[in-house]
Design a protein that fits this description.
mainly beta, Lipocalin, Jelly Rolls, 11-stranded antiparallel sheet, 9-stranded antiparallel sheet, 29 strands
């Protein structure tokens, strides 16, 4: 591992770094990479959301709570979300037919029944794309030799994502909760003895916590008295107790089907499974350790990033084992602007930043790239975590601190 470090006041620059061998992303087999699209390509700079797919006349709607997208950029590039993982590819338009090149996607573990299977079916469908029909509001792509279709609606024609709350305020922000019980009302099960499941609403859009064994994070949206969670990303540490493993999986699945919620100073109740079950939370006692899963803070033996003379940025390139964490720390001053970025071949190394008193600035920021930029609140040490959510891989950490 090569470490670079940088003082607070100097002209921008870069330090030589050791670059680890990258892990090649898993491709979806497809046709030969096509050439750039023609100038009259009407798909360029459009965005679409998948509504249904399958045999013509018998299409299956996308799974509730998932969003599958397709974006066509200028220059013959396309990409989007398969409902869990991000993907990218080349494309070519020939008359009224559409050809996609090699598809490369991230390899994040998908939480929720059927999401992995749906994503694989979708990416396979793109591989066999053929004729397409496009209007201002609809895109239909035929696949499987014309026997099946992908039905998209224009993203800007889909109902807008609700704001955090109708009155502009979100009372959940900054609150921390601990799960006591969950299941059908009046028949809830207590959490497994000795385990702790937490839910913290860091911002109006980001929630994090512990599933009892693994740490997790994800986006969420509040509209009135309804809450919905986006893709949940979690570590994949093997739990020693099988009951804790099963409880954690049920909890994550419950979040994915969350509906209405009720909040008081002493209780948070979230209904799920179409209102047939509830999650019952009480206020959590903050451990103030920079972690929702009980990991020690500060981390032992973090690698200190110190800036070379006259430098304001530094890079560290390294390899990280499957589901592991690398810890870094650097000193910076109140009021300085700091940028931290992590890049990895499969975008499965995420970023966490914690102050020296254990307060998180950002948790589980994924990419591509995983990055954060902001003004530092105090003169102190800042801890940077590079967290792997996939197999062994390489990554590059870039840190820049602007002088005052």
């Amino acid at each position: 591992m090569l470490i670079a470090a940088v003082p607070a006041c100097a002209a921008p620059g870069a330090q030589e770094t050791a670059t680890a061998e990258a892990t090649t992303p898993a491709p979806v087999p497809t046709q030969e990479t096509p050439a750039s699209p023609p100038d009259d390509d009407n798909l360029a700079n459009t965005e679409w959301t998948l509504e249904s797919f399958g045999p013509m006349g018998a299409e299956t709607p996308v799974l509730e709570g998932t969003t599958v997208t397709l974006m066509f950029e200028s220059g013959g590039q396309a990409g989007g979300s398969g409902g869990c993982n991000s993907y990218g590819t080349d494309y070519q338009v020939q008359d009224n037919s559409l050809i996609f090149g090699e598809i490369v996607s991230t390899l994040m573990a998908c939480i929720g029944e059927g999401i992995t299977e749906q994503e694989q079916l979708y990416l396979t469908a793109l591989r066999s794309a053929g004729e397409f029909e496009q209007t201002a509001d609809q895109l239909i792509i035929h696949y499987d030799n014309g026997q099946s279709v992908l039905n998209f609606s224009a993203t800007n024609s889909v109902a807008e994502t609700p704001t955090p709350s109708e009155d502009g305020e979100n009372s959940l922000v900054g609150t921390q909760w601990q799960l006591e019980s969950f299941g059908p009302p009046a028949a809830e099960m207590l959490v497994v003895e000795g385990s702790m499941i937490t839910l913290e609403f860091e911002t109006a859009e980001q929630a994090v916590g512990s599933g009892g064994c693994n740490s997790y994070g994800g986006d969420y949206t509040v509209q009135g008295d309804t809450i919905s969670f986006g893709q949940i990303v979690s570590t994949e540490i093997a739990c020693l107790d099988q009951a804790v493993t099963e409880q954690e999986q049920r909890y994550f699945e419950a979040l994915q089907t969350a509906g209405s919620f009720a909040q008081t100073a002493e209780q948070l109740t979230i209904s799920y499974n179409n209102g047939q079950s509830v999650l019952n939370f009480v206020p959590a006692t903050s451990s103030n350790d920079g972690s929702s899963s009980g990991e020690s803070f500060p981390p032992e033996d973090p690698v200190r990033i110190a800036f070379e003379p006259s430098e304001t940025s530094a890079e560290v390139s390294d390899t990280i084992e499957e589901h592991n964490t690398h810890y870094y720390v650097l000193r910076a001053l109140e009021g300085q602007e700091m940028m931290v970025e992590i890049t990895s071949p499969n975008n499965d190394v995420v970023l966490t930043i914690v102050t020296e008193d254990g307060m998180p600035i950002k948790r589980y920021q994924n990419g591509p790239p995983a990055s954060w930029t902001g003004t530092l609140p105090d003169s102190q040490d800042y801890y940077i975590y590079a967290i792997s959510f996939g197999p062994d891989t390489s990554y590059t950490l870039t840190v820049q601190v602007d002088p005052l």
